[in-house]
Specification:
This protein is 39% helix and 16% strand. By secondary structure, it is an alpha+beta fold. Among the domains are: 172 residues, Isoleucyl-tRNA Synthetase, Domain 1 (Orthogonal Bundle); 209 residues, Rossmann fold (3-Layer(aba) Sandwich); 203 residues, Valyl/Leucyl/Isoleucyl-tRNA synthetase, editing domain (Isoleucyl-tRNA Synthetase, domain 2). The strands form eight sheets. Strands 4, 5, 6, 7, 8, 9, 10, 11, 12 and 13 form a ten-stranded mixed beta sheet that branches. Keywords: Aminoacyl-tRNA synthetase, ATP-binding, Cytoplasm, Ligase, Metal-binding, Nucleotide-binding, Protein biosynthesis, Zinc.
Length: 958
């Protein structure tokens, strides 16, 4: 029995239930019966399943069930507790849940302990914003009181996010998450800091660091983002006062995009291997600051660009030579005679290029990493010129008290006043900004605490461990390797209040840190008992003890970089919980964490343990809108997970995560979500068909594979192949491939082929027919496999299907393992044979689709086509019931040449079909058109098969 309206759809039961018959044979048919609804109602049903999981304590049940198994530990990268989750954090948590669930169902003990980042600038900034709105000053509030407000803010949002993550279906130890604001965690973090102190890796140094003048603190690389910024540019003359002819009495020209750093200039760098020229100015544009007759020195490759920019219309070269000729040359500062009365030497620098500028680099050791390196190499002074708020310090001549962001114009004006300015302009370029305040940053020379990349061979160890770790995708290895290879020392100190304190004492005279194991032990004991607030509320003698005079020591009030907090989570989470292990099996975050959590965790663990804290790292992309743009409120293109769940359900969001290649950026939009809803509906209908046709399945019906028809054995072969594919993809965390494989199997090989063909046998065959028993046995196996494979992805829908059938011993589908399918089911030769059959069938169904469209037939069962095949294909077609496979009432196979007007499709040119009508009458039970309809005594409207089935049903009923 077939419904012509659904033969080529993915919904094999879409129109069942209303079957026109002369007599009522409905009671003799095995029509699908299931409580699994076609309409999912996920937004309403999912909370019911969540409640059931918590009522049965599913998380604890999983832990008890998995005791003694091999552990797989995904260590949770902590999200920030400062607002509702967004689509990026939702995607991240879903992906982690899929990892944890698949590993559990592979037979491992896959425990997931969620965690949060609770310290740091973003939370502190929020509290300061509240203060400013209320007219309060943070500095007027006791630091412990301020810290308490930060703590309560973090805990509030932690609770909000916890409920939002749970609503996504994520299973984990939500009652016992980790967080760095607990005293036991803070004790471990401080202990890790003190390990660096004691092994010599921690040191105090004054060097330029990325500094936020708004937040008044140093920032880590991971706290920086780059935006376009318009800078004032200046070309400046530096008069040569010492050097051979023709240098003396002429000018070196520099170019910079940060005029405010000119007070910090202490040298000029040149490229020893570059070519330079001295040009004598012959003509200038009107208004240009260049002077006819003066000689200026620039890189030869940049001469034309410099002349064009500063307005030199004509010049002649009066000197040519290598950069090495400038060794020993000395200039005066452009503000010489106005408080800047020192020599400015020309020094070789490997960082000098001819990509832009003049080939001479203005060098301010207090305002740039490369400048600092050159300064250290040649013993330059590293002046402190700018305070924490971005103001020039009182001792800075000409500009004391001015803010650096407002000083570019005044600096250029003074240079012009003193005859040193050659040109000023504008440049739009990528510039570092604070990710929190969005304000531009500066390089500022300040005393900070650093972890050395060279002491204890930290860089070398980290690079070696990177090569040991497995990276998914593999290019992640190259990214973090280059970052570690080139990164400067780790700036550990922050001039903030909300965080783990930098628990150090600095000698007032020696300016060296106190390294005393007894003091360290007291610090750890107090913080472990009372929390980090004790550092801010206790007098120094409480920690120093009787052996050190507090008058000799300065107790630091800085906090530790928040990336150190999260970077030590392997120590205060993995190493302190009995249900976890270290190193972690997997770290999983966005690709930006190569410079964030992956990075800091690697350095911290390598610096204290000599190894990475993870065995493998998986990265995903970012969430973009449907047009590939970053989502933002200003663009109005944000898609919120809460709204998606409210409209469609969490399973649709989970499906979206794995339906794309999540190692790349993911796009989301209403149109994309609608596509996922359609994909979901196809999967759901497949499950519904299977459930409906397994009604009252009895184990006595089960057939061994060897006794099944070839079509069923082909399905089992495909199922076994898919099982191997799924398991292998799980080990590679390739969930996109799992989705594609399972979805394709369900929609193409099952719904559009096997289930479409077997509807007739399932509905119309006698209950004890081999064909029907084989099909139901296969459906039972399909149900077991599909619900298991889909459970980590569609966690709610798989549970609904499992509960609807209610025949398994497990209370939840999530307490199951992936079923073990017999290897002997695999039959590559059978797969190849049925691939040829499906190829031939595709041409037949294509021909019949045209017949239906042209209304020459109403259903495929009215057809009896002639199929022209090669001898080999013809033999295959005759070896099976090809009419049954094509869902026609008959098929004729011919090896003769096909007529020119036969139907063909482009990619199957050796198969041709000539449509024709079936001969006979229509069976009113199965709708097949057969010659024997009307020839069976007592059953004048049935075919022989249906007459036998009806008699068998009557016998059973009697």
């Amino acid at each position: 029995m077939h419904d012509p309206g659904i033969a080529q759809t993915d919904n094999p039961i879409a129109n069942d239930g209303h079957i026109p018959m002369t007599k009522d044979y409905k009671a003799t048919l095995f029509l699908p019966q299931t409580d699994f609804p076609m309409k999912a109602g996920l937004p309403q049903r999912e909370p019911e399943f969540l409640a059931r999981w918590y009522e049965m304590d599913l998380y604890r049940r999983l832990r008890e069930q998995a005791k003694g198994r091999e552990q797989f530990i995904l260590h949770d990268g902590p999200p920030y507790a400062n607002g509702n989750i967004h689509m990026g954090t939702a995607m991240n948590k879903v992906l982690k849940d899929v990892v944890v669930r698949t590993q559990q169902m592979l037979g491992k003990d896959s425990n997931y302990v969620p965690g949060w980042d609770c310290h740091g600038l973003p939370i502190e900034w929020k509290i300061e914003e509240q203060y400013r709105a209320a007219g309060k000053n943070k500095d007027d509030v006791p630091v412990v009181e301020f810290r308490q407000e930060c703590r309560q803010f973090a805990l509030h949002w932690l609770d909000v996010q916890r409920e939002e993550f749970k609503r996504l279906g994520v299973i984990g130890d939500w009652d016992n998450p980790y967080m760095p604001i607990r005293p036991d965690s803070e004790k471990v973090i401080v202990g890790e800091l003190l390990k660096f102190l004691m092994n010599g890796g921690l040191y105090r140094g004054a060097k330029p660091v990325m500094w936020s003048v708004v937040e008044k603190t140093a920032l880590a690389e991971a706290e920086i983002e780059y935006h376009d910024h318009t800078s004032t540019t200046i070309h400046v003359r530096f008069p040569v006062v010492k050097g051979p002819a023709p240098f003396a009495g002429n000018s070196i020209v520099i170019w910079t995009t940060t005029p405010w750093t000119m007070p910090g200039n202490r040298a000029i760098a040149f490229g020893p291997e570059l070519d330079y020229v001295g040009i004598e100015v012959a003509a200038v544009k009107e208004g240009a600051l260049a002077r006819v007759g003066e000689t200026l020195f620039v890189a030869a490759a940049l001469r034309e660009a410099v002349e064009a920019e500063v307005g030199i219309m004509a010049s002649k070269i009066v000197w040519e030579g290598p950069g090495s000729a400038f060794e020993g040359v000395v200039c005066h500062h452009p503000f010489h005679g106005h408080g800047y009365d020192f020599d400015v030497p020309l020094l070789p620098g490997e960082h000098v290029t001819v990509e832009q500028g003049t080939g001479f680099v203005h060098t301010a050791p207090g305002h740039g990493e490369e400048d600092y390196v050159v300064g250290m190499q040649f013993g330059l002074e590293v002046p402190e010129t700018v305070d924490e708020g971005g103001l020039f310090m009182p001792h800075v001549p000409l500009f004391a008290g001015q803010h650096v962001f407002k000083a570019n114009g005044p600096v250029a004006d003074k240079l012009q006043e003193f005859g040193a300015l050659l040109h000023r302009g504008k440049l739009v370029h990528s510039y570092p900004h604070s990710w929190r305040s969005k304000a531009p940053l500066i390089f500022r020379n300040t005393p900070q605490w650093f972890v050395s990349m060279e002491t204890n061979d930290l860089r070398k160890t980290a690079l070696a461990e990177i090569d040991r770790v497995k990276w998914y995708p593999p290019q992640g290895r190259n990214r973090i390797h280059s970052m570690i290879e080139n990164r400067p020392d780790w700036v550990l100190s922050r001039q903030r209040s909300w965080g783990v304190p930098l628990t150090l004492f600095l000698g007032r005279e020696s300016r060296e840190p106190l390294r005393d194991p007894a003091v360290n032990e007291r610090i750890l004991e107090i913080i472990g008992a009372e929390g980090a607030d004790a550092w801010f509320s206790s007098p120094p003698e409480r920690f120093l003890g009787p052996d050190h005079d507090p008058a000799d020591w300065e107790m630091l009030t800085d906090t530790v970089d928040v990336w150190f907090d999260s970077g030590t989570s392997h120590a205060y989470v993995l190493e302190t919980r009995e249900d976890l292990k270290t190193p972690a099996s997997l770290y999983l975050e966005g690709s930006d964490q190569h410079r964030g959590w992956f990075h800091s965790s690697l350095l911290e663990s390598c610096g204290t343990r000599g190894r990475a804290p993870y065995e493998a790292v998986l990265t995903h992309g970012f969430v973009l809108d449907g047009d590939g743009r970053k989502m933002s409120k200003s663009l109005g293109n944000t898609v919120l997970p809460q709204e998606v769940i409210g409209q469609f359900g969490a399973d649709i969001l989970r499906l979206w995560v794995v339906a794309s290649d999540f190692t790349e950026d993911l796009r989301i939009s209403p149109e994309i979500l609608k596509s996922q809803v359609d994909s979901y509906r196809r999967l759901r209908n497949t499950l519904r068909f299977i459930l409906g046709n397994l009604a009252r399945f009895d184990e006595r019906e089960r057939l061994p594979a060897a006794e099944m028809p070839e079509l069923e054995r082909w399905v089992l072969s495909r199922l076994a192949a898919l099982d191997a594919q799924v398991r292998e993809a799980c080990e590679r965390f390739d969930f996109h491939q799992i989705f594609v494989s399972v979805y394709t199997f369900c929609t193409i090989e099952l719904s559009s082929f096997y289930l479409d063909i077997r509807k007739d046998a399932l509905y119309c065959d006698a209950a004890d027919s081999v064909r029907r028993r084989a099909a139901r046995t296969v459906l039972d196996t399909l149900f077991d496999s599909l619900t298991a494979w889909l459970a980590p992805i569609l966690c709610f829908t798989a549970e609904e299907a499992w509960q609807t059938r209610g025949t398994g011993p497990e209370e939840s589908v999530h307490l199951r393992l992936f079923p073990e399918l017999p290897a002997e089911w695999r039959d590559p030769a059978l797969d190849a044979r049925w691939e040829r059959i499906r190829r031939m069938r595709r041409v037949v169904t294509g021909a019949l689709e045209i017949e239906r469209r042209e209304k020459r037939i109403g259903a495929s069962l009215q057809a009896h086509p002639v199929v022209h095949l090669s001898a080999g294909d013809a033999a295959i077609a005759r070896s099976v019931d090809f009419a049954e496979l094509c869902i026609t009432s008959g098929v004729s196979v011919s090896e003769a040449a096909a007529p020119d007007d036969a139907f063909r499709i482009e990619d199957v040119d050796d198969v041709a079909v000539v449509p024709g009508l079936a001969e006979g009458s229509k069976c009113q039970r199965c709708w097949m058109v057969l010659p024997d309809v009307g020839t069976i005594a007592g059953h004048d409207d049935l075919c022989g098969r249906c007459a036998s089935a009806v008699e068998a049903a009557d016998t059973v009923a009697a």
